[in-house]
Amino acid sequence: MTDTPWAGFIADFPDDIVWGSPGQMEITGGRNVAVALGEILTELGCQASALEYAGLKGWEFEVYYEGHRFWCQVTSFHPAFHLLFEDPAIAHATRTKNAAAYAEIWQKFAGALDQDSRFQYVEWRSMEDGPPEPEEIGDTRTREEIVVALPEPLEPSLRPERRPARGAVFRPVLFIAAILGCLFGVATTIGGVIHVVVWGASAGGDGIATSVCIFCLSALVLWALYREPRRGPKA
C-alpha cells in the first residue's frame, strides 16, 4: 500500500469561499475542487458519494472502488489546496484486504492529476509528514497570477449550500453511551464473577451473561464508530 495519502497542489479554479458580513466566513472554499476530484475518480471507475461540508477542514466524500471504501478530503487555501486520500479502515485485517485496491486507485488518481492541466505542482507526502504548507506549494508568482485572474468568488446562484456533517450531534452521544456500556459491562461482569465465587454459581450466572452481552454490544458500537473515516488532518 502507498504510504503517501497527503497531497498539496495549486488548482486553477475560482475561489468559492462564501462570506457573510465583512470579515465573517460562512462557508469555506474548495467545493468546486472537490467536485472536480470526484469526477476524476468516477472516470477512473470509482463511485463517489455526495460531498459533505466539514467546516474549516473543507469538503469530503467517500470513494468506492471495486467493493472497497476509501475517503477523500479537500481543504482550501486558495489557490493552494490540501488533499487527503486514504483508507479509513481501523482494523489491520481490513486495511490489508484493501491494500491492493487502494494502491491501484491511488496510482491511477495520482497519474490523472499529473495529466490534468487544472492541477499544478502536485506533491504527495506521508501521513507522518503531512501535507506541504500552502506557501510551499508552487511558487509565489503562480499563486498570484491565479488570484489576479480569478479574483471574484462564485456568483450567489453557484455558491455551495451549508451541509453539516452526518450525525454531528448523534455520533458523540452514541460514542459516550457505548463507552459507558463497556464500563458497565466490565464492572458488572467482575461483580458477578465475585458473587459466583463467594455465593455459588446459581447466585450470579444469569447476571454475568447479561453483563457480557452489554459489553459485547457496546464494544461493537465503538468498533463501528471508529471505522468511520477520520475527519481531518492528523494533529
Describe what this molecule looks like in 3D.
The chain is α+β, with helices and mostly antiparallel strands and 235 residues long. The chain folds into two domains: 6-158, TATA-Binding Protein; 170-226. Helices cover 44% and strands 20% of the residues. It contains five helices and nine strands; from the N terminus they run βββαβββββαβααα. Strands 1, 4, 5, 6, 7, 8 and 9 form a seven-stranded antiparallel β-sheet that branches. A two-stranded antiparallel sheet has the order 2-3. The radius of gyration is 23 Å and the shape is elongated. Mean pLDDT is 81; it is low at 162-168 and 229-235.
Question: Strands, helices and their partners?
Answer:
Elements: E1 6-11, E2 18-19, E3 25-27, H1 31-43, E4 47-48, E5 52-53, E6 59-65, E7 68-77, E8 80-86, H2 92-115, E9 119-125, H3 140-149, H4 170-199, H5 201-226
Antiparallel strand pairs: 1-8, 1-9, 2-3, 4-6, 5-6, 6-7, 7-8
Helix pairs in contact: 4-5
Could you name the CATH topology of the largest domain? Answer: TATA-Binding Protein
Relative strand content: 15-25%
Put simply, the count of helices is 5
Main pleated sheet: 7 strands, antiparallel
Text of the CATH class of the largest domain: Alpha Beta
Low-confidence stretches: 162-168, 229-235
Helix content: 40-55%
Class inferred from helices and paired strands: alpha+beta
Q: How many separate domains make up the residues?
A: 2
The tally of strands reads: 9
Q: Rg from C-alpha positions?
A: 23 Å
